[in-house]
Amino acid sequence: MPKNPVRKQDKCNLATMEVLVPDNRTGDGDTLQYLTEYHYAWWSETEDPDRIDNVKMVTFSIDSKGNIFERDGSPEADILARRKSKKKLGSKKERDIISLAEFDRLFPDEEAAITFIEDTIWQGVPVCPKCEATNAYMPKSGKPMRWRCRACKRYFSVFVNTPMEKSPIPAKTWLKAIHLMHTGRKGISALQLHKMLGIAYQHTWHLEMRIRKAMEPDDIVLAGIVEIDETNMGGDERWKHANKKLHERWREGKVLVMGFRDHTGKTILFPIPNNDRETLERAIMAKVEPGSTIYTDGHTGYAHLSQLGYNHEWVNHSVGEFVNGMATTNGIESCWALLKKGYVGTFHWMSAKHLYRYCAEFMYRLNSGPGNGPKIMGATLRSMVGKRLTWDDLVYGPEDGTPLETEAMAA
Ligand SMILES: [Zn+2]
């Protein structure tokens, strides 16, 4: 058993915790959550207090002898050992974090922005979108389609087959929008972006939705230890006009979002039509590999997971239990806190129709880490290829899909 300073005490208070892990404290009162007398969880914040993507929920338990164990996938790890081996964080440049001033230095004009997009998508070799030849040159015509294919003689640009094709919005503005959407941990509302970019509100909303579409996830499946939970998103009954109140039917005015988070922090979020056992089980079978360990709350919809080939443990929130043995759902609940803060503070109102896309955006930021610089902007640009979203499709088209709906349609 490893030694530590609180060995002689049979409990550890917040002050002791601070002595043990001073460099992990944020100084923000509500980030340190008192769970039970022997269990603590806190946000171990890295450097940038404004970004929750950086933040990893770490839960510790203290046994009756005062030994402290990290409970985040590595129960044997002693905190002090962890502190010694703690990797130094890279510089902001290494972590791909840039300021707005740096953004303007990197992209002083439209030419710099277009060149960056070409380098990112083509990786140095212009490809003709029609005949796929790689034998293009830049004529001196100065046309918007600034490349010409020697094979088929057509003019083309890097924007063909991306949401930026035929967009009247300058390339630099697109880049700035992508940068800003990665900067705030809760995203940025179309209203705020509209003020910052100086383009019409409707265009900004459409632009943001098109970037969100690029952020839609590839088909990821989690394994190992996976926390699962679901939550209600939707306007608070209290603030609704009397004739809009749903009273005891309040659940009908909300939309359910289901969340999965593995022990490395990889997260999946998407709306679900209801929280019946059948729906939850179908979603879990689609998103978690059999044989994995699943932590949930005491919802009866999860009661039969062991029959589906999962190791299932649960915590009973209704009796104030937050950690049961190794089981906890604190990780996924931290995502709800973020999504709901985004809902209330940033977006004010997310329509049920587009909730899937907002979930995709939050997931993308959670999974891609804290960067907002050229690396993550490049990754987002590359995933914009082939993903156009017209105004008509966005406004008049069907609801954005969820994995469950796609699966149902395929069946
Ligand atoms: Zn060609």
What does this structure look like?
This protein has 4 domains: 14-85, no CATH class; 94-124 and 162-208 and 376-397, no CATH class; 125-160; 225-369, 2-Layer Sandwich (Nucleotidyltransferase, domain 5). A 5-stranded mixed sheet has the order 10-9-8-11-12, sandwiched between helices. A 4-stranded antiparallel sheet has the order 1-2-3-4, covered by helices on one side. The radius of gyration is 24 Å and the shape is elongated. 33% of the residues are buried. The chain has 13 helices and 14 strands. It has helices spanning 14-20, 79-85, 100-106, 110-122, 171-183, 190-197, 201-214, 277-287, 330-347, 355-368, 374-384, 391-396, 403-410, and strands at residues 32-36, 39-44, 56-62, 68-70, 136-137, 147-149, 155-156, 225-233, 255-262, 267-272, 293-297, 311-315, 323-324, 327-328. Bound molecules: zinc ion (ZN). Zinc ion is lined by residues 128, 130-131, 133, 149, 151-152, 154.
Secondary-structure element pattern, one letter each: HEEEEHHHEEEHHHEEEHEEEEHHHHH
Q: Specify the CATH homologous superfamily of the largest domain.
A: Ribonuclease H-like superfamily/Ribonuclease H
Main pleated sheet? 5 strands, mixed
Largest sheet, spatial ordering of strands: 10-9-8-11-12
Percent in strands = 15-25%
User: Which percent bin holds the helix content?
Assistant: 25-40%
Distance between the termini: 53 Å
**How would you describe the shape?**
elongated
Please give the CATH architecture of the largest domain.
Answer: 2-Layer Sandwich
Q: Which small compounds were modeled alongside the protein?
A: zinc ion
List the domain count as a whole number: 4
Secondary-structure-derived class? alpha+beta
Q: Please write the CATH class name of the largest domain.
A: Alpha Beta
Assign the CATH topology of the largest domain. Answer: Nucleotidyltransferase, domain 5
Count of individual helical segments: 13
Q: How many beta-strand elements?
A: 14
